[in-house]
Amino acid sequence: MSDQLLTPKDVQVVRKFNHYESSQKILLVGEGDFSFSLCLARVFGSASNIVATSLDTEGVLHKKHWRSVEHIEELKRLKCEVLHGIDVHNMNREFRLIRRSFDRIIFSFPHAGHYNVREHITWVIE
Ligand SMILES: C[S@@+](CC[C@H](N)C(=O)[O-])C[C@H]1O[C@@H](n2cnc3c(N)ncnc32)[C@H](O)[C@@H]1O
Q1: What does pTM read for this prediction?
Q2: Residue 72 is inside which H or E element, if any?
Q3: What distance in angstroms lies between residue 32's CA and the mean position of ligand 1's atoms?
Q4: Is the distance from the beta carbon of residue 36 to the nearest atom of ligand 1 less than 6 Å?
Q5: Do the beta carbons of residue 74 and residue 37 sit within 8 Å?
Q6: What are the tens digits of pLDDT across the range 31-88?
Q7: C-beta 114 within 6 A of ligand 1
């Protein structure tokens, strides 16, 4: 046995949340207000393995989901990579994601769209 003691820095604590683990490389697509990404990041204590993305550009997103601003700020503090304008239909050709691999890809509640129902209406989000 080695005579060197492990320090807390040497030990990577793996945190689990449902199907996900902090050691996994996780890609989130179709985020709205980024609350789900932030939830994962908070549970893990770090988002350095998380790439969180939205279809909307930053400007559009801020108008639709004003809380996304504070959520994204906290995500970035937790070392999350945040990308906008990522469309699941062509993300295999998306230069920011190409040649990268992930253990999990999460698309929660994809919204197909309905007449008179918009995804940023509070009761739809709730
Ligand atoms: C009902 S919202 C769910 C938002 C978020 N995933 C959640 O769980 O709160 C549906 C989301 O799907 C996104 N979306 C729709 N079509 C998409 C596409 N082709 N690529 C990526 N995201 C898409 C919309 O921008 C919207 O944020």
Answers
A1: 0.84
A2: helix 68-77
A3: 6
A4: yes
A5: no
A6: 999 999 999 999 999 999 999 999 999 999 999 999 999 999 999 999 999 999 999 9
A7: no
Q: Which ligand 1 atom is the nearest neighbour of the CA of 107?
A: 6
User: What is the spatial distance between Cα 75 and Cα 91, in angstroms, rounded to a whole number?
Assistant: 22
Please give the Cα distance from 10 to 107 (Å, whole number): 33
**Is residue 94 exposed (0-12), middle (13-18) or buried (19+ Cβ within 10 Å)?**
middle
Question: Is the C-alpha dihedral spanning 50, 103, 97, 54 positive or negative?
Answer: negative
Q: Which residues partner with 117 through β-bridges?
A: 114
Rounded to 5 degrees, φ, ψ at 51 are -115, 115
- Interval 80-113: pLDDT, tens: 999 999 999 999 999 999 999 999 999 987 765 5
Hey, how many other C-beta atoms are within 10 angstroms of the C-beta on 65? 21
Count of positions (residues) in the chain: 126
CA of 33 to the centre of ligand 1 (A): 10
Q: Is the CB of 84 under 6 A from ligand 1?
A: no
